[in-house]
């Protein structure tokens, strides 16, 4: 099969949807000839024109709200936010409007929109351009939250997000953009709410998201050399969360390590850990659940500090060992 | 048929009795709600538009049915003018399943998306971008509808005002921003909260027309808004129309009104927009005193009827709690 | 000792600090003669004048950023946000500026400010005026998060927050405003990061925040009748979190129920549960940790639905029983 | 002493050589940084102000030492003009402990709060309210300092622009908002992103002066900003000054500049602000060609020296990661 980068997969999903459905369009800053801050929409204005690839002013509040209004009246907008850190400016429209409209109006209205945005550190962009704030959105009833880790998943999940009749926040990880995987040419959909077991194992379960999926797979490969067999689960969507797949895995392995790049304190790892601790899997646990997440600091600029602020492969290896070695 | 009054093209003299009735429906509806709140019969809070009837009715009078509006926390008048049934409105305030939002939204969220009322909004300034987005739908789908975005003097100091109107101006979207300048926010006097006399002057920042009308004179409102709506429908882009008016009651349920004088209130009561309309209609011979009385009585009766309707409507059950939510 | 309401305690803490320190001032919407949306600053403009009780336009982005700039240059602003739901508009200044400045500038700068804001449901204000979003703030390195449940705590914690050289988010619960407790007249400080055992017990530990402290105490009183002895811990500050007190309690009782009003999914309960699951207390646990939180719906308007959306005394009683009866 | 040139009161002819030198320092600093980024020797991204030297130097030239500035993502020039040492700046870009932010902030966060540089900002529009708050400190503490808030044409479409300037206008705060209109945001042409020709026209919305100056003519900048600063210092409130200029380089590290033509770039290069200043100084006999060359050489040498300084400075250690954070 053909290989695509994650970035290309995102673009292809959008292009295919736009070819099929006139109601789908993109709006965002510098998404036209510039191709977006990360080049995701490059070439699209040439195919679809400026009416459907709409370059906006630097006005995150307006563009998110415009997407809500357009969605509410029959369009299916995709909003590109240049960095996920800027959701601070789009928060009201996403949280107080998009998420609530359907319920608040007694079911009479729908807001089919996708907010796509790159998250994460590793590019030296420092404190205001490197955050992983997905936990915020998971806390809001009415928002679906998607966080693909591979090109294949990105394409299929983005189609599902665009097809969804409700607002979806779609987090792309900057360091994933250049990663590649086999991606079918035809359009396909990966249902929201279905985790993927990225590697099977029996001694411990790792639940990891975004770039941490890759680090966890590296860690698992290392651990295998030492005879420790690790199962790596990528939930792919945080809301809805496929608790079943995670519970079944933990029942099998009896150990759980949760890994995300977002700051550990108040991060979604707490939710995953607690869901398991509350579930039938609790009785199968042979060791405390371990959570790995970012340290409680703004992401620093210096590259060594930047790396040290979030979990690395070694941290994951150590965490699994601690869990496995626990008697 | 020659007309005695200077009316915009979409309004005929024969429509005036209906508009007059709407004004009374609003007045009676608000007074009834006020009474219920005072008696503690309704939950929550509410913001009444008594004294501001002409800006709602006059603005919406010039619309076609397919046109849309976004409303505010002070939205009952807009709803009625856009054709909402007082039954469903009152039922909503009573929290019943027959309410516009099945009892889940309350006063601040009444919406009727199908009929083009995109909703009241509890967020001051929350409607600017939603209206802009709806206008974008109209433009992209070539649906030809125009959107009226109601907002207050206070809301004009929110960043969303600036971002959304700028966006609407560069894309020449068919939206008219209608400021109901009732002189105060919750308590903040408009003249202290901005350094210019008129919100309409701010149109200058966006290269669009800005016009002040007498918000207590329905004819002035209709002509001012009518022109802006025509412009929008012709693809010439947005305008700001500022209707100077006054709210007779306190900001919301509990308001000692220390921030203004009783004299000022009295002055504005003399400018009662309903009385003014009645006078003109009678003087111009478009309505007899008796007809006017009858209309008023009918309006009152309908509002009274809505109380029976609401009071006899079913309460939601706990099963309804998790309905209409999808994530 | 003298009794004060929670609301009066908040006001007294501010007044005492303002008398002592010229740099402390308050800014916010309608905090002048109106006394603030909930009346917390009532009477203060009479004592301190409009220079120090600064009524602002409806501009949450500007006023939060103005507080940041004033704090960075030597003032100690207290910002009143009318409803905690509107933090969506102040997010950028709190998260990308206030929280990060000190670290991002290499320690050369400080932002001593307090953002006070009422949170929670129970007043019929519906989806956009009833949220409990404190979990968001706990996730951000550089923000301290305080959530008092009693008048006594409110006064002492607010002094500590004002004295702190860093940004503090101070959540007041609307339903707590009228609750009373003994409050010393003199100024006193309760250190941030010190939990309070509101009731001692031995069979189970409840960790509860804000209004849920009161419900948990009610539940504990009921449970006592059935011979179940419950310890109720109020962390009072979520960041920093007094993990020690909670861990010690769980080691003693072996059972933990965490209760907050905020939506359970992605709520701070996950953090508390996970901290315990990761701690030495894990080995003492005799039952899975239970979390109670709001249901995943926008807060509905109808009073019965509104109540059902968040944990009630019965839910707490049942949760404790389930935990205690678990073998 | 009579002056040959029309200069604002705070600038004497004898100061001009220094200002001329600052322009070169900026030019050389930026070119050095450009080179390092191109070679991949520096982490992250950067935004260079080559071509915009006069607006930074000219604006800050009219300030007193105690005055303050807020800067932007394109902030190196403002830093140098406000008296920052190129050593500390270059060290910051190298991520070293001797950098202005100890290597934690990088290009987008250089600040020197003590000296009155309240910081660059990675958030477009992030400085508006911070500057307003600093000006509030000046007013409340009667400290007499003025704040310059730099921002771009693109930033003027953010809601924070509107909210903050409105607030500053009603409180008559001593702040001057300086738009460096370099014709583009990241790629969005100013003339497509707003419906008015000049950002300065937006002053009309706030009842304050708005003036356009030639941003490539340091004398015009000094006079325009000088007047606004005087006004601010006299308690007459804020102004907007718009300096029309151009950035020679791409927006940031990687920019194919498809959104503009090479011809346009050439035209603007002919308006080189440094060359223009040199010509005037030489023609007016305020500097000989030799002196001018010497100044340029000195500036270059200092920048070269900063590279040695930075390269020989210590890296932070992992212990530094958790320094300067408090919650
Ligand atoms: C973002 C936001 N800030 C503050 C409030 C609280 N609030 C509700 S109405 C209101 C006053 C609004 O004034 P204006 O826009 O003039 O409308 P009016 O009430 O006069 O109709 C305020 C401050 C809110 N609901 N939303
Ligand atoms: C809130 C926010 N939105 C978007 C960006 C991404 N971004 C960085 S600089 C820039 C362009 C800014 O344009 P302008 O204000 O004209 O400044 P210039 O770069 O031209 O100096 C954009 C869109 C950002 N950093 N912050
Ligand atoms: Mg008003
Ligand atoms: Mg620019």
From TrEMBL, chains A, C:
It holds the Pfam family Transketolase_C. One of its GO terms (molecular function) is oxidoreductase activity. InterPro entries: THDP-binding, Transketo_C/PFOR_II, Transketolase-like_Pyr-bd, Transketolase_C. Residues 4-179 form the Transketolase-like pyrimidine-binding domain. Keywords: Oxidoreductase, Pyruvate, Thiamine pyrophosphate. Its cofactor is thiamine diphosphate. SMART domains: Transket_pyr (SM00861). It comes from the Bacteria. The keyword Acetylation does not apply. This is Pyruvate dehydrogenase E1 component beta subunit.
Automatic annotation (TrEMBL), chains B, D:
One of its GO terms (molecular function) is pyruvate dehydrogenase (acetyl-transferring) activity. Signal peptide: none annotated. SUPFAM superfamilies: Thiamin diphosphate-binding fold (THDP-binding) (SSF52518). It comes from Planomicrobium soli. It comes from the Bacteria. The keyword Transmembrane does not apply. Keywords: Oxidoreductase, Pyruvate, Thiamine pyrophosphate. InterPro entries: DH_E1, PDH_E1_Alpha_Subunit, THDP-binding. Its cofactor is thiamine diphosphate. This is Pyruvate dehydrogenase E1 component alpha subunit. Residues 23-317 form the Dehydrogenase E1 component domain. One of its GO terms (biological process) is pyruvate decarboxylation to acetyl-CoA.
């Amino acid at each position: 099969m053909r290989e695509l980068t994650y970035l290309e997969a995102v673009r292809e999903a959008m292009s295919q949807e736009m070819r099929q459905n006139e109601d789908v369009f993109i709006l965002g800053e510098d998404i036209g000839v510039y191709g977006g801050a990360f080049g995701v929409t490059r070439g699209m204005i040439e195919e679809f024109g400026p009416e459907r690839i709409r370059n906006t002013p630097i006005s995150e509040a307006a563009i998110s709200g415009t997407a809500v209004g357009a969605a509410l009246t029959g369009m299916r907008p995709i909003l590109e936010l240049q960095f996920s850190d800027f959701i601070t400016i789009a928060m009201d429209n996403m949280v107080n409007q998009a998420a609530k409209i359907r319920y608040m109006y007694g079911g009479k209205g729908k807001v089919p929109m996708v907010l796509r945005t790159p998250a994460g550190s590793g590019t030296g962009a420092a404190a205001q351009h490197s955050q992983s704030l997905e936990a915020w959105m998971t806390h809001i009833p009415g928002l679906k939250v998607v966080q693909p880790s591979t090109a294949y998943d990105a394409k299929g999940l983005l189609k599902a997000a665009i097809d969804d009749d409700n607002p979806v926040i779609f987090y792309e990880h900057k360091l994933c953009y250049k990663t590649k995987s086999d991606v079918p040419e035809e359009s396909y959909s990966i249902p929201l709410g279905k985790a993927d077991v990225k590697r099977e194992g029996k001694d411990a379960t790792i639940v990891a998201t975004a770039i941490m999926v890759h680090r966890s797979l590296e860690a698992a490969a290392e651990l295998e050399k030492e005879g420790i067999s690790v199962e790596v689960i990528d939930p792919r969507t945080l809301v809805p969360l496929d608790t079943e797949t995670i519970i079944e895995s933990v029942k099998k392995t009896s150990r759980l390590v949760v890994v995300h790049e977002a700051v550990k304190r108040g991060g979604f790892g707490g939710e995953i850990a607690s869901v398991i601790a509350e579930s039938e899997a609790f009785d199968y646990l042979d060791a405390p659940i371990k959570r790995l997440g970012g340290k409680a600091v703004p992401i620093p600029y210096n590259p060594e500090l930047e790396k040290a602020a979030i979990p690395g492969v070694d941290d994951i290896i150590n965490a699994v060992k601690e869990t496995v070695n626990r008697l | 048929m020659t007309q005695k009054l200077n009316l915009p093209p979409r309004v005929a003299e024969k429509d005036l009795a209906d508009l007059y009735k709407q004004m009374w429906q609003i007045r009676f509806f608000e007074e009834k709600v006020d009474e219920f709140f005072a008696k503690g019969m309704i939950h929550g809070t509410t913001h009444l538009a008594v004294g501001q009837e002409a800006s709602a009715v006059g603005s919406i009078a010039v619309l076609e049915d397919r046109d849309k509006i976004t409303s505010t926390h002070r939205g009952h008048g807009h709803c009625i003018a856009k054709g909402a049934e007082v039954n469903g409105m009152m039922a909503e305030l009573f929290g019943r399943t027959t309410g516009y939002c099945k009892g889940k939204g309350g006063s601040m969220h009444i919406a009727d998306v199908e009929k083009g009322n995109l909703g009241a909004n509890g967020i001051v300034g929350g409607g600017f971008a939603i209206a802009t987005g709806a206008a974008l739908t109209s433009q992209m789908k070539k649906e030809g509808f125009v959107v009226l975005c109601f907002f207050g003097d206070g809301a004009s100091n929110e960043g969303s005002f600036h971002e959304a109107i700028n966006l609407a101006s560069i894309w020449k979207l068919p939206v008219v921003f209608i400021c109901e300048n009732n002189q105060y926010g919750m308590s903040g006097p408009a003249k202290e909260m901005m350094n210019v006399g008129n919100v309409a002057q701010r149109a200058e920042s966006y290269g669009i027309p800005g016009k002040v009308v007498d918000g207590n004179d329905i004819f002035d409102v209709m002509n001012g808004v009518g022109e802006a709506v025509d412009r929008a429908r012709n693809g010439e882009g947005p305008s700001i129309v500022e209707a100077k008016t006054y709210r007779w009651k306190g900001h919301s349920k509990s308001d000692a009104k220390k921030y203004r004088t009783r004299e000022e209130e009295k002055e504005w009561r003399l400018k009662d927009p309903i009385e003014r309309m009645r006078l003109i209609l009678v003087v111009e011979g478009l309505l007899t005193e008796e007809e006017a009385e009858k209309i008023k009585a009918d309006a009152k009766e309908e509002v009274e009827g809505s109380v029976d309707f609401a009071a006899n409507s079913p309460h939601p059950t706990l099963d309804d709690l998790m309905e209409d939510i999808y994530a």
